[in-house]
Structure formats: C-alpha cells, structure tokens
Fold:
Amino acid sequence: MKGIRMHSGLNLASRLLAVALAGLLAIQAVSADEHVSAPVTQTATATADTQIGTAAALLSHGRWEAAFAILSPLAARDPRAGDLLFETGMVSLGLAHRPRITEAERDAFLDVSIAAFRAILAANPELIRVRLELARAFFLKRQDGLARRQFERVLAGDVPAPVVANVNRFLAEIRARRRWSAYGGIGLAPDTNIGAAPAQTAQLVDTPFGRLPFTPDEKPTSGVGVALWGGWEYQQPLGERTRLRFGGNISRRDYEGSRFDRMALGAHVGPRWLIAPGTEASLLAQSSRHWSGSSVSHDELGLRVEGRQNLGRRTLLSFNGSWRERSWQGQPDRDGPITSLGFGVRYQVTPVTVLNASMFGERDRPEQPTRRNKSYGLNLGVSRDLPRGFTVGLDGSVNWTRYDEIGFSTTDGGLREDRTSGLSVNLTKRDLTIGGFSPRLTLGHTVRDSNAVFQDYERTYGEINFVRQF
Structure:
C-alpha cells in the first residue's frame, strides 16, 4: 500500500508541476508536441537552444526527470539552463507547502526541488541562494543532517543579517527536534599490506650469542576486501533541553579467506544536554565486541563524554573523552583500561571549502607492563566542492607511540617508539546517486617507523565506497 501511495504522489506531483510551470516556460520557436515526442537521447548533438526548448517542453508535460537529464550538463555553460532548473525547484518547493496534501505528495514535490537545486550546485557550488533553498527543502523533508550541513555552509558566505537570523532559527529547530539519524556505506578496499606486516625482510638482532640475522614471520599480503559500515541513533526528549540518546553501529571488512577479516558491533546510551544555542554535551555508556578472523578478539565497556561549541558562523569546536575497559579473549595479560582525550576544530572557510584539524592523546594500561604505552597524534584535512559535482579532499596525519618498559628488541637498546604518518586523497561525485548513495574514491599511503625490530611497515590502500548520510 505504501508503494501505491508513493506512486500516486509522484503522479500528482508531475501533474501539478506541469500546470504550475506551464505559465512560466516561454521559450520561443519551440513546439511542445514536437519535442516531447522526440527521444531525449537525440538531443546530444542539438544546439543549446533546442536542448533548452526540449527540456522546457518536457517540464510542461510533467516529465521533470527527463528534463533534468538535459539541463544538468548544460547548467555549467548556459545560465538559461540554471535559471530553468532554479525556477522548477522553487515552483515545486512552493507546491510542497500546499494545504491538505498527503505526506507522499509533499515528499514527491520536495524530491523534484532537491534534484533541481543539486543539479545547479553541481555545476556552480558557490551559489549561496541555491544552497539556501536546498537546505530549506531538506529541512521540510526532515533530512536534518543534510539540512544542517547546507545551512552551515550558507552562514560561511557573505549573507545579510536577516538571512543569518533566519538560518539560525532553522538550525535551532533542527537541534531541538532531532530524533532519528543514521549513516552507512559499502565499498571495495584494495590494500598492499592488509595485516600491516613489517617492511623489513631481515634484521640483525643483539642476542647473548652476538648479532644474529632474523626474518619476520609475517610478510606483506595484498588483496581486495569488501568494507561495510553503518549506524543509527534515536533521541527521546526528556525535557526542554535534555534528550536520551541510544543507538548502535557495525563495521565489517572481509578479505579472501578469513585471516584478515575484521568486524565490530557497538552500542551506546546516555543523556544529551542542550546547554545553550550552539553548545551541547553528552555522557554515554558504551560497549562493543570485536572479531579478528572468525573469532572474538576482545570486548570493551566504558563511558564517553562529547561536547560541541559553535564560535561564530564558521567555527565549530568539539571535544571527546573516554574511559573503557578492554578484555581480551584468552589473553588476560592484555586486559586493562584505556583513556583518551580529543579536541577538534572545523572552520568553514567559504560555502565550498572546509578545514578540519584535530588532536588526541591516549593511554593504554594492560596487565602486562611491557605492553603499556601512551600515544598522541595530529590530523589535518581540507575539502572543496568543485564544479561538475566533484568534491576533493586531502587528509594528513601523524601519530606517536611510546612504550613504558623495554619489552621489544630495539635497534638502539632503548624504549620502543613508533611514528605513524599517513596521507590520503579522496574524490566524491556528490551529484551522482545510486539508491541514495554517492561514489567516493580514496587513495592513501601509511608508513610506520619504529626502533623496535620488525615493527616498521608501509601500506598503500584504496577504497571505492558508496556513502550516504541520511
């Protein structure tokens, strides 16, 4: 029955949209009947005038998907195509406000509006007015995560004070009404060193019998894995400024055989406090189980605190800290507490460019003294929306780890120290969706340098993912 209602909603949307646009489409020297009967694929070699005329005729008959297929590639080089998309988006957004329409009909109108605005931003991502209307459409469809992201980008532009105030009202309502949220993705993950095996093929090690050569047990193994991840959360209001959060997450990575397979399941629950506009904090109890190969490797149980603070229109500060007790299966010497602290900042330079930076520190205290260590690290990233629907990102990281006691053979006879650095680049085709998921290509390289014997490694990896935030 739901599918039938949605189908009827789409039909009504097409009819009402056709009626509403009929008076707006005034393209000279275009015969509607002639263009509607012509296959859309025949317009590939037509002039821009003919293509726009064909799209206008299709819109007047409610065939917006076919019209958008023509207009989207043209929007980057012909402003008339962008104007026609924008007008269609605004008309359908207005129709979504009509009284006494069903939810399915309203969503159908909003789908048309969102598709139109996305097509324009794919061609020209710096159009703030279009981004504002896209945010409104997401808001009306209650896709609050996407709406918030677009509203925050609008605030990074040169917008007048009344628009700022209006956007802040939208953001406050999103913050107050948030209930369900979810994320997910799936992809292929080629890797030159799946198990992070040492890069050395042989090493001289000091022994009571002198310096003797040794070779590592593991050698780098390449392969292509399948990665899957996702999570959900629901927030139940407990008062005007208090919510109860509970949710779960899953991640899995499979390679040929089972030796390098990894999986994790997690859950969390706890309160969220809306302290002030732009300020919030959460305290969560969390638990997780982890698998290595086909067997359970360890469990974790603990607490996590999170906080966010907006500083002006462009800057978001974040904080997180956790304490968790890790219990290993059959390896009690590795059991023990882990504490961590992290700080981050996101700066929206422009509506299309964002900078991210974060730092963290972690203390691992297992039962076995030689495994105890502390680590800290820094991550920097930048991403930018480009024309033609592409988003490119660059991320770099460096982490340091130092062990408390000598438990490893080291090249200098001192305590073990590791430095791990990584660099990755990713490319997302944000205007291409398959079932709501967009493709993202990531390429990266990681190197660990250590003074411990057989602990150096390097790996080059890639991921072809389909991701969605909904």
In short: The domain at 180-242+309-323+337-469 is CATH 2.40.160 (Porin). The first helix runs from residue 2 to 22.
